[in-house]
TrEMBL record:
<protein>
    <submittedName>
        <fullName>Uncharacterized protein</fullName>
    </submittedName>
</protein>
Amino acid sequence: MGNVEQLFCEICRDFSDVKYTITPITEMVKNVSFTYNKKAAKCTGCDSEIFVPEIHDENLEARLAAYHTNVL
Ligand SMILES: [Zn+2]
């Protein structure tokens, strides 16, 4: 996967260059605070987030891993 990739943007209704961002997110679940890096794919045309199933899965795994690291 390169840095620039084209994905379909529903706002632009066209294939658009995408940039990947990583944002640290801190959450609190059952009194356990944990931080994980949330990835997102953003359209460079309108700056809206584009849903990518693989990235969604990665975020879920990163979130779970961060939670379990802090619980143990
Ligand atoms: Zn767009």
